[in-house]
Specification:
With 305 residues, the protein is mostly helical. The chain is 74% helix and 1% strand. Strand 1 and strand 2 form a beta hairpin. Helix 4 runs parallel beside helix 8 and helix 11 runs antiparallel to helix 14. The longest helix is centred in the N-terminal third of the chain and has 39 residues. 26% of the residues are buried.
Length: 305
């Protein structure tokens, strides 16, 4: 005997109405995502297989653009520079966490510092780039301050040196996006009970023990999220700063993949090759992000079991 009761027509109609309502609410987001994300991506993939030069009619070229970019020294240099920027990832990830914990412990003036740290993120990156191009100029305020303090040896041409330019660009990017990391970690810490922190302090936990034994285990998902955001940001967010500060120079010292896509497409008017570089960049970021997200998922499953 079947003990399951058949669903009443009224309940079935209510459930179907709920499904249609959900579909109606989700439809605008899906339409926008397809129109402005999926369609451009498909067009760029198709363009990467086209031979284009200037305003001439494109023709199918197969994998010729991909073969060309992997033989291009500038392409290799741009990804090498991106790898050098990646080496600063621990600073991007852990420095905002340290500041967030200090603010979360109600350090004197913590509300004012929270606003101060987040303020740079609210400034347009192009404006930040123009501002620091003036600050880091050979006769700019930074060198004037160093010379006035008797530190003439540190007064260098920050944006004109083959080694210092990428370092200065990375430091400016970190300053610009640092506040978002602090705010992200503070949001994660706000879900933690103050009683847990007080109990840890009563047990004699100092700041560093609180950081490694308390904050990192509890904020693993937040740390993973911010790590993925930083890794993608290092290759995508820095374009306005490169454009405003160095234009990829001196030489190719600060040439990054996204800026190479820009100059290849809009200055050399080679849309097919520019699209191929963009797809290579997309795959690179997607592979790294997938690896980190997969690791987060495994950690989460391990905790739940």
């Amino acid at each position: 005997m079947n003990l399951r009761r058949s669903e009443s027509p009224k309940r079935r109609g209510s459930r179907q109405a709920g499904i249609w309502l959900i579909a109606l609410l989700v439809a605008p987001a899906i339409i926008l995502a397809v129109t402005f994300k999926l369609v451009p991506l498909v067009r760029v993939v198709w363009m990467s297989f086209q031979k284009t030069q200037g305003f001439y009619e494109p023709s199918f070229a197969g994998l010729a653009n991909y073969e060309a970019i992997f033989r291009d020294p500038m392409f290799i240099t741009s990804f090498r520079n991106a790898f050098m920027v990646f080496l600063s990832l621990p600073v991007w990830v852990f420095l905002p966490l340290i500041i967030a914990i200090l603010l979360f412990q109600r350090t004197p003036g913590w509300k004012a510092f929270r606003a101060i740290y987040f303020l740079p993120y609210m400034i347009a990156p192009v404006v930040v780039g123009i501002m620091f191009r003036q600050i880091l100029a050979p006769d700019g305020p930074l060198n004037a301050m160093l010379i006035g303090s008797g530190l003439e040896g540190f007064a260098i041409e920050w944006l004109n040196g083959p080694n210092s330019a990428l370092f200065a660009l990375t430091a400016v990017a970190l300053w610009s996006f640092f506040g978002l990391g602090v705010l992200t970690y503070l949001a994660g810490l706000s879900t933690v009970s103050q009683e847990v922190i007080e109990a840890a302090r009563l047990d004699g936990a100092g700041f560093w023990r609180l950081l490694f034994n308390f904050a990192l285990p509890l904020l693993k998902p937040v740390v993973g999220y911010w790590t993925v955001l930083c890794m993608s940001g290092m290759l995508i967010w820095m374009f306005p700063l490169v454009y405003a500060m160095t234009r990829g120079g001196p030489g190719s010292a600060t040439m990054l993949p996204e800026y190479l896509v820009f100059i290849t497409t809009f200055e050399f008017l080679n849309r097919g090759k520019g699209a191929a570089i963009g797809i290579a960049l997309f795959i690179f970021v997607a592979v790294i992000s997938t690896f980190v997200v997969r690791q987060m998922y495994r950690d989460g499953r391990g905790k739940s079991q």
